[in-house]
Amino acid sequence: MGIKKTVSVLGLGRMGSALAKALVGQGYEVTVWNRTPKELPNTRSAATPEEAFKSDVVVTCLSTYDVQQPLLTNDIKTLVNLTSGTPDQARATARWAKDNGIEYVDGVIMAVPQQIGTPQAKIFFSGGENHHVLHAFGEPVYVGEDAGLAALYDLALLGIMWATFGGYLQAVALMGTEGIEPARFTPMVADWLNELGHMLPEMGEQTQTRQYETDVSALDINVSGLRLLTEANREQGLDTTIPQALHGLFERAQRNGHGAHSIASVIEEIRK
Ligand SMILES: NC(=O)c1ccc[n+]([C@@H]2O[C@H](COP(=O)([O-])OP(=O)(O)OC[C@H]3O[C@@H](n4cnc5c(N)ncnc54)[C@H](OP(=O)(O)O)[C@@H]3O)[C@@H](O)[C@H]2O)c1
User: Fold this and answer.
1) Cys-Cys crosslink for 8: which of 27, 34, 52, 69, Cβ 3.0 to 4.6 Å?
2) Is 157 within a domain?
3) What is the overall mean pLDDT for the chain?
4) Which residues line the pocket of ligand 1, CB cutoff 6 A?
5) Ligand 1, atom 32: nearest CA belongs to which residue?
6) Do 81 and 193 belong together in one domain?
7) How many A from CA of 110 to the centre of ligand 1?
8) What DSSP assignment string belongs to 194-212?
């Protein structure tokens, strides 16, 4: 077995600490740096980022690119960037790395810190293929040569998560206005989400063919439904930001001639 590379982790927040612990668990020699000095068992603390850049691989996990960018220098040999950002931010960092002779991998973590080091933690990565340290964190999933792709997958999937959580919280609040507790309601939500999941492949196909014929439910009916949902939330004394936003978007698609089409036709408005 070859000698394991030395790895530094920049950022010891919730996620960075979990990453550093996983590397230690896999037998790596780990150096850590954090703005607010922090000790982590079986790691060496670097006083400055530059000191941490002496390792073979530098893993960054800071809150944002704005925070990260000023810390990076061309002393880094291989950069595994796990800080969340936009595709353009990732591409700009990849260009900077290339111009400075730094090997670069852009990754996103589709997991919570508690899952790091288990196969449940999917690490999407793009750009470079030097992903050996990613195996310590979970299951690496290569999504392409363009360094911006991992961020694109990340934000697309998180968008579904935030929309779902927003919808769930609105529903819990609505049920709560009549004293129905989440413990009673949530099992129904899980079944419902499972059912909805089965509808996505056909919806996805329609967005590609742009053929929106439906014998299931027309957009007209869904626009009426969203109006009812908005009114019901208002009647029950709740905020209506989420249902109103959806109603506005769906109604625009209806006005533009998609009333008899399926919900998939709303993508025509989104793509504008
Ligand atoms: N937590 C999750 O479930 C999760 C899941 C997937 C991806 N991520 C991504 O992982 C990254 C880190 O998230 P996290 O949950 O670990 O966040 P966090 O717990 O808030 O930690 C943020 C880290 O950024 C550092 N930082 C913030 N401002 C800084 C500055 N001005 N200069 C230097 N360092 C600074 C913090 O240092 P201090 O300790 O000094 O404040 C800390 O190390 C984010 O990009 C996040 O999107 C997180």
Assistant:
1) 52
2) no
3) 96
4) 11-16, 34-36, 61-63, 67, 83-84, 109, 112-113
5) 67
6) no
7) 15
8) HHHHHHHHHHHHHHHH---
Question: Which pLDDT belongs to residue 1?
Answer: 46
Which residue, 100, 134, 152, sits at the end of a domain? 152
Which among 133, 140, 139, 107 has a CA at the least distance from the CA of 120?
A: 139
Q: Do 126 and 203 fall within a single domain?
A: no
Q: Per-residue pLDDT averaged across 17-21, rounded?
A: 98
Decide the pairing of beta strands 139-144 and 6-10: unpaired
Q: The domain spanning residue 187 has which CATH number?
A: 1.10.1040.10
Classify residue 172: in a domain, yes or no. no
Tell me which of 40-54, 62-76, 116-130, 241-255 is least confident.
116-130
Residue spans of alpha helices (H) in 70-119:
87-99
Q: Is the pLDDT score of 228 beyond 80?
A: yes
Q: Kindly state whether residues 256 and 197 are assigned to the same domain.
A: yes
**pLDDT (tens digit per residue) in 88-132:** 999 999 999 999 999 999 999 999 999 999 999 999 999 987 678
d(C-alpha 125, C-alpha 109), whole Å: 9
Residue 175 lies in a domain: no
Structure token digits, residue 172:
């819990």
Output the six-digit token pair for 168. 């769930």
CB 151 within 8 A of CB 108: yes
Domain range holding 102?
6-152
Q: Is the pLDDT of residue 188 over 80?
A: yes
* Overall domain count for the chain: 2
User: Of the candidates 204, 94, 104, 81, which has an alpha carbon nearest to the alpha carbon of residue 154?
Assistant: 81
| Residue 204 located in a structural domain | yes
Residues 148 and 184 in one domain: no
Amino acid at 109: I
Percentage of the chain exceeding pLDDT 70: 99
Q: Take atom 31 of ligand 1 and give the residue whose Cα is closest.
A: 67
- H helices, E strands: number in the chain: 10, 8
